[in-house]
Every structure is written in C-alpha cells, then in structure tokens.
Amino acid sequence: MSKLPNVTASIFSVMSQLANEHGAINLSQGFPNFPVDERLLQLSEQLQRENIHQYTPMAGLPSLLEKIARLTLEQYKRKVNIATEMLITAGATQGIFTAINTFVGKGDEVIILDPSYDSYEPSVLVAGGTPVRISLNDDYSPNFNRIEAALSPKTRMIVINNPHNPTGKIWNLADFEAFETLIEKYPNVLILSDEVYEYIAFLHPHISFHTRPKLVDRTIIASSFGKSLHVTGWKVGYLIAPEKWMAEMKKVHQFLVFSVNSFAQHAISAYLDVVDFGAISEMYLQKRDLFQSLLKNSRFELLPCDGTYFQVVNYKNISHKNDVVFAKELIVKHGVAAIPISVFYNDSTDRQMLRFCFAKTDETLLAAAEKLSVI
C-alpha cells in the first residue's frame, strides 16, 4: 500500500527532461548555472586532504553551529544555544520533513498556503496527517480570513514560506502583526517557517520569525546554505527551534540521516568567515533587474519580485491555454523552460502564470529573453 498514491514525477523533472530533449534554455528548476565563489573552491581544495571525512556529531559540526549562531545573532539579534536549539540537516527539505514527521500524526491537520513548495504535503501525508491547503490572495499576500477559517482544534502546524517560492512575495510588518493576533488564539499550533531564501531579499527587508518575540517560542525555522551560497547540490541546511522542540526533532533526525556530509560542513564553516551575504543579495538583485529589463517590452506581464531568485509572469496577452500546456509549448516551440504556477496549488488554480528562475549567467538570461521577447 502506497503512502503517496497520487505522487508522480515532479513538474521540475518533467520540464527539465523536456528542455533537454528540445535543447531549450532551462529557467525552470531553481538552481544557479554559474560557478560557485572561487574562495569556496579554494577552501574546499585545501580541506579535502585533511582528516575531515568521518562522521560529524549528530547535530552538526561544532564550528559550523557556532558560526550559524553568530550569523543569527548578527542578522536577527537572536542568541541561539548551539547545544540545544540547532540542527544541521541534509538540506532544508530534510529539515522540513523531520519537523513535520516529529510533531504531526494521525488526526492532525497542517495548514499549507498555496501556491506552495511541493515537499510540504507529501511530508504531512507520510506522517499520517491531513494537509489543509488554502490559497493566498491574488497578489500572493496571506489571506487571514481563510487562515482563521481553516484553524481548528485539529490543527497541529501551519507552514509559512517567506520569502515565498514560487512567487517571490515577502511578508510585511502588517502581515506579521495580523498573524500574531490570529495565532494567539491557538496556542497549541506550531509554526514551521521555511526561510530558505532569507538572504535573497530586495526592496523590502526580510522579516524573520527569529525577530518576533510573540512567535519565536513556537516556531521551527528552516534555512538553506544551498540557496544562500548557491551550492544546492551540497544539500546542507539547518533548523533552529526552542530546546523542547529541538530535542524531539533530534530523535527523528538521528535515525533518518544521523549526520550530514562532513566535507560540506567543514567547507561551509570555513567559508562563513569570508562570505558577505549582502553581496549575494545584491548579485541576485542585479540579475532580477537585468531579466526584468530584458522582458519589459515583451508581451509577458511581470509581477513584483520582492525576494528569491524567481520571476513570475502572466502570459494572458499571449495565449489563453492552460499554464501546463503553455509551458510545454514554450519549450517545444520557443526554446525556453519555465514552471507553471498551477502545479503549486491543490486545486490546480490556473491564472496563466509561469515561474522563471533568474539564478543564471547573464548570457543565459540574455539568450532566454531574446526568445521570450519575440513571442
């Protein structure tokens, strides 16, 4: 008997395979196609012959934990106990899976805000819980009336992704204040905050749950070095949570992966001494602005992009076909791959939107925009 009977190949695999078959420029999957920082490569070369290739402690390499704690203090003014409140995970996705499967069981409900990242629901289903998926507003801001209507005594957790994939939306202060007023009525509901794009924010600052005193004691925060440092294949992320929640997650984690890739942990630990996260955000801002400028005279309507490395566009001026069909047509006929937004909704809401990833070389963005501008 399958725990995930309705799960098939992900849209990311489908679009990437189709792009490969047709030699299309792949702006679908969310990973950079440019080299990592030369300093990280040099540090990695120096480290590879050192005695660092055995298990690290289960919760993570101590030096890496210390530097994450320092980063969290500098960025969010939150002091974190590295022994009791932190956990290095095999990517943020494993951290999210661990958090959900630690606290969600049969009969529990988990609220997911659509459009949503595709790993949330399967994690809930494997845990035996029930996903309750509700839609954001048309501008992808949170709809608190819908959230309140979905909350019940069965609600165990709500998953919030900020900055938001796939839309690039960032919660503002009013959003947090409204959420705090609402969730105060439900003290037993845990918050799982997916903040993997926290260091890729543009015009508006990213407000983290780390900075919200009313919420932080009931929040598990997932972060990703893969996203922040554009090393997605290294699969290194981390969770930060109060001790009482972290102690339970460590029990699950130790039997899921025990410890994370030692070499990657050592390399990232060394790199954190030299990397500037502000420069990373600025680099992606330049890429966003370049991509937007290249498409400003096209027939695509560009939506605001507050953060992440994704640009959502509306193609209503080009076609009335549904977004999955149009996305495939875009690959086959025009040579550019994107992700249709409807796949991020439980009910396949189709508003004729596509998501492009602009974490690419300028040459790639120029070549893609040239094709997109003549459609």
Walk me through what this model shows.
With about 375 residues, the chain is an alpha/beta fold. The protein folds into 2 domains: about 10-30 and about 275-370, Alpha-Beta Complex (Aspartate Aminotransferase, domain 1), CATH 3.90.1150; about 55-270, Aspartate Aminotransferase, domain 2, CATH 3.40.640. The protein contains 13 helices and 13 strands. It has helices at about 10-20, 40-45, 60-75, 90-105, 120-125, 145-150, 175-185, 225-230, 245-255, 260-270, 275-295, 325-335, 360-370; strands at about 25, 85-90, 110-115, 130-135, 155-160, 190-195, 220-225, 235-240, 300, 310-315, 335, 340, 355. The strands form 3 sheets. The chain has a 7-stranded mixed beta sheet with strand order 2-8-7-6-5-3-4, sandwiched between helices. Strands 9-10-13-12 form a 4-stranded antiparallel beta sheet. Strand 3, helix 5 (about 120-125) and strand 4 (about 130-135) form a beta-alpha-beta unit. Helix 1 packs parallel to helix 12, helix 2 crosses helix 10 and helix 11 (about 275-295) packs parallel to helix 13. The longest helix is centred in the C-terminal third of the chain and has 19 residues, at about 275-295. It is globular, with a radius of gyration of 20 Å.
Topology overview:
Elements: H1 11-22, E1 25-26, H2 38-47, H3 62-76, E2 86-89, H4 91-103, E3 109-114, H5 120-127, E4 130-135, H6 144-150, E5 155-161, H7 173-183, E6 190-194, E7 219-224, H8 225-228, E8 237-240, H9 243-256, H10 262-271, H11 277-295, E9 301-302, E10 310-314, H12 323-334, E11 336-337, E12 339-340, E13 353-357, H13 362-372
Parallel strand pairs: 1-11, 3-4, 3-5, 5-6, 6-7
Antiparallel strand pairs: 2-8, 7-8, 9-10, 10-13, 12-13
Helix pairs in contact: 1-12, 2-10, 3-10, 4-5, 4-9, 11-13
